[in-house]
Every structure is written in structure tokens, then in C-alpha cells.
Design a protein that fits this description.
By secondary structure, the chain is α/β, with parallel strands linked by helices. The protein has a domain of about 240 residues: NAD(P)-binding Rossmann-like Domain (Rossmann fold). The chain has twelve helices and twelve strands. The strands form three sheets. The chain has a seven-stranded parallel β-sheet, sandwiched between helices. Strand 1, helix 1 and strand 2 form a beta-alpha-beta unit. Helix 1 packs across helix 7, helix 2 runs parallel beside helix 4 and helix 6 crosses helix 8.
Length: about 350
């Protein structure tokens, strides 16, 4: 039986990991540490047995140390991060505080609990990062590998790069048993509706514009969050200490094609279930129209990387990782979840006015 702290476990990827871990290791105890900012939602993990939510800041080293001791923690899975690129451009301070200072706070607490006190307890500190630390690729460049030099282009990716380096340093300097994963763009249930897929899905349901940056040809590798959680599980169980593993979905798509798939999926859902028209009367599909008509082009954002692509051959070869979904399948699952969970996302949209 393991005792875990999952930071950011009330957020999107963290909550999905908590759900996943309850299924694969129901005997383990999980402490979710989350400061519950706008993207943290206790409802994401409500009702899960063996999971305790602690509202607190990862920058509070004393709190983290107390949790480590009180619950005999042997595993930290670190998701907590500020992650929205647009927000990092207008307010970078929070990204440096959470992503760099917060990660260092966790590392200090882990070092105290697992090394300085001499417990000799087997342990693992797993750090969840992003492919954005590698910078941008040209269309004919090889995909990012674990040896690609870091070249972050936004305050968000720079802050994540800094946290990656700190994790590496604590392993090589102090012997802390760490692993790091750099993932591609995630999507799936519980994603806060400011990111492309949930935002555009909900906009299409509400008849609001689908604003596409620049020419829409920026390319991303898309990873369903459940496949990501499987990758993290493999790293925790079989990954080599001190190593980094890239986790991708193998679905490299331009943004414009992602938006078209969203439009196709929403329109098909209305065709298959006409009753949706009564629930979402403002959707073009409710009136026999097409969601594509909502697509608009807007000025490109600052520092918008052209292409990300993940070379996941290391985790495939060493750990047997293989994503289970292509993008059409993964998005179809995601759309069904959002259509079935209006009570989850509607208050978020109305409170934050995100999709307006």
C-alpha cells in the first residue's frame, strides 16, 4: 500500500489521475493538495473513497512537510501549475510563483521527509511537465525527444522549464528519487473551459464564435487525459529513477482541423439526438445549420509556437506505453462527457463568463 500526495489533484489532469489511481490501486491512500484557484474544483474528485482533499498552497513548505509526516507519504505526483499560456502573457508573476517557487517548496519538503530525517523510506517524486519547454518546431523538424534542448518561448513554458531543472537538480545533487514526464496537449473530462477543446465545444453548443488564432495551422500533438494517466502510472511503476519520459498521443493535428472535428462532432450529436435542440437552442445545429459557420479568424497571439510534436519512442520501448485513442475517438468520448455533465460546466461558464 502506498501513500500519495497529488498536488493540483482537484484540477483537470490531476483529478483524472486521482480517478485513474483509485481504479488501479484502490488500496492506496491519496492526499490531494490543491489551493483551489479558479481551475481547481472539489467536485472533480467528490465521492472518491480513500481520497482526502487538503486546501493549501504548495508554496507552504511547512504544510507540505506536515502532510508528509502525518500521512507517511512515499509518493508525490506533482500536477499543480499555472498552465494557460494567454494568462501567462498578461500575468507572468503567478506562473513563476506557482511553477518555480511552488515546485521548489515541494522538493524541499520531500528532501526533509525522505533524506534529511534518514528514514530510508523508498520514495518517488514525479513531476508532470509539458512539451512546451522545448520551444517550437518547423514543419519538417523531427519531433521533440527527451534530449531536445530546452527553448521555452512563453512565460508559462519558461516557468515549467525552471521547475524541470529544479527536479533534475534535486536528484543529481541530493539523491532524491525523481522522474519527470513532458506531455503534449491534453483533453478530456473535467477540463476547465478556457482551453481550446472544451471552450470551442461549449461555444458551439451556445452559438458563440470559434475564434481561431492566425491562420489556424499551428500544430499540436493531442493526448487524451486517460492515456496520459496510463503513461504516468507506467513511469511510477517501472520508470528509471532520474529519467525523463515524453508522453504523447501520436495525434499531430493543425488547430484548424481540431476545430473542424469539434464542429463535425457537435453537428453529428444533434443529428443523432434531436432532443439536444431543446437543451441548446442557440447552437447552429439546433436549427439545422452547421457549427462551422461560427468559425472566425483573429490576430495571432504573442509568442505563439508554430508546432509541437512528441517522440514517445522511449516510453513505448522501455515501459510499453501505447495511447488507446486516436483523436476522433477521444474527442467523441469527451463530447459525450460534456453533453452528459452540463451541471458540472454550466456554473463555471456562467460564473467566469469564459465562453463570452
Amino acid at each position: 500500500m502506498a501513500n500519495l500526495i497529488v498536488t493540483g489533484g482537484a484540477g483537470f489532469i490531476g483529478a483524472n489521475f486521482v480517478h485513474h489511481w483509485r481504479k488501479v490501486a484502490p488500496q492506496d491512500n491519496i492526499i490531494v493538495l490543491d489551493v483551489l484557484t479558479y481551475a481547481g474544483n472539489p467536485a472533480n474528485i467528490a465521492g472518491l473513497d480513500g481520497v482526502e482533499l487538503v486546501e493549501g498552497d504548495i508554496c507552504d513548505t511547512a504544510l507540505v512537510s506536515r502532510l508528509m509526516d502525518d500521512h507517511a507519504i512515499d509518493t508525490v505526483v506533482h500536477f499543480a501549475a499555472e498552465s494557460h499560456v494567454d494568462r501567462s502573457i498578461t500575468g507572468p508573476d503567478a506562473f513563476v510563483t506557482t511553477n518555480v517557487v511552488g515546485t521548489h517548496s515541494l522538493l524541499k519538503a520531500a528532501k526533509i521527509a525522505w533524506l534529511d530525517k534518514g528514514s530510508g523510506r523508498p520514495h518517488r517524486f514525479h513531476h508532470v511537465s509539458t512539451d512546451e519547454v522545448y520551444g517550437s518546431l518547423e514543419m519538417d523538424d523531427p519531433a521533440f525527444s527527451e534530449t531536445t534542448p530546452y527553448s521555452p518561448n512563453s512565460p508559462y513554458s519558461a516557468s515549467k522549464a525552471g521547475s524541470d531543472h529544479l527536479v533534475r537538480a534535486y536528484h543529481h545533487t541530493y539523491g532524491l528519487e525523481t522522474t519527470t514526464s513532458n506531455c503534449s496537449n491534453n483533453y478530456g473530462p473535467y477540463q476547465f473551459p478556457e482551453k481550446l477543446i472544451p471552450l470551442f465545444t461549449l461555444n458551439a453548443l451556445s452559438g458563440r464564435n470559434l475564434p481561431i488564432y492566425g491562420d489556424g495551422l499551428n500544430v499540436r500533438d493531442w493526448l487524451h487525459v486517460e492515456d496520459h494517466c496510463v503513461g504516468i502510472e507506467l513511469i511510477l511503476r517501472k520508470g528509471r529513477i532520474g529519467e525523463t519520459y515524453n508522453v504523447g498521443g501520436g495525434q499531430e493535428l493543425p488547430n484548424i482541423e481540431v476545430v473542424r472535428e469539434i464542429c463535425r462532432g457537435v453537428d453529428a450529436a444533434f443529428a443523432e439526438n434531436p432532443a439536444l435542440a431543446a437543451t441548446f437552442p442557440d447552437a447552429p445545429a439546433a436549427r439545422g445549420g452547421s457549427s462551422v459557420d461560427l468559425m472566425t479568424y483573429v490576430e495571432d497571439r504573442k509568442g505563439h509556437d508554430r508546432r509541437y510534436a512528441i517522440d514517445e519512442s522511449k516510453i513505448r520501448g522501455e515501459l510499453g506505453y501505447e495511447p488507446a485513442r486516436d483523436f476522433p475517438q477521444g474527442f467523441a468520448e469527451t463530447l459525450r462527457w460534456y453533453l452528459s455533465n452540463e451541471n458540472w460546466w454550466r456554473p463555471l461558464v456562467e460564473r467566469a463568463k469564459i465562453a463570452r
